[in-house]
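Entry 14. Ran structure prediction on the chain below.
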Amino acid sequence: MKSNLICFAAVATGSTVMLGADPVVDPNPTGWKTTAGASVTLNKGNSDTLLARADILSIKKWDKNEFFVKADAAYGNQGTTDNGHKTTAQNYGIQGHYNRLITDRFFWWLDGAARQDRIADIDYRVTLATGLGYYIVKTETTQLSGEAGPGVVFERVGNDDSTYATIRFAEHFNHKFEGGRASIFQNAEFLPWIDDWARYTVNADIGVEAAVTEKMGLRVMLADTYRSNPAPHFKHNDLKLLAGVTYKF
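Output, structure tokens:
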């Protein structure tokens, strides 16, 4: 908890300081933009816990094309009364997303994602989808877009294998504050079974980032995954509050 409070304070301080700094100038607007992030929480003493998470996001925009690829992994454990350790988090994911602009605001998109979560008893979940999207707001500092289209999901949850059609609804928001040194982002995704809308998965996140140097920054993010039909004996909701450092290259 102390480490998280320190990160919160640092982000708030960084945001205040950097907003008045000189604006960031991108020397290569069509090149790859990559950001890696990491966070670690370690407790020793009366409690013995470890939680570590790492992620990476790469973006490339050129002509009428936009390509995003990201991956993340998390692992955690806690000590037990018999001096052993119990795994409390173990999940991995990767996603690729491509937009082809039809007009300045309308676009066709293609999305593919795969995830494994040992703690939630998800051996695999693979989603493939395509459709149309629209930039509701599109400026140098603010982007808000929506997406919708058909897809298919392959998954193994508990002992059940499923393949089903879905309609993917998604929304993305990003805003850079004056000077480009601090930003806020938010994403949401809704994936129902096409023949039974009472069965669905929701993925959402919201967060803030603030630059400390030209390359390094601080990030606080709240992420949530809700499954209407989790594996037997597991909860519907997985909520995570994450604070850590980022590095751009």
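The chain is about 5% helix and 70% strand. Will compare against last week's run tomorrow.
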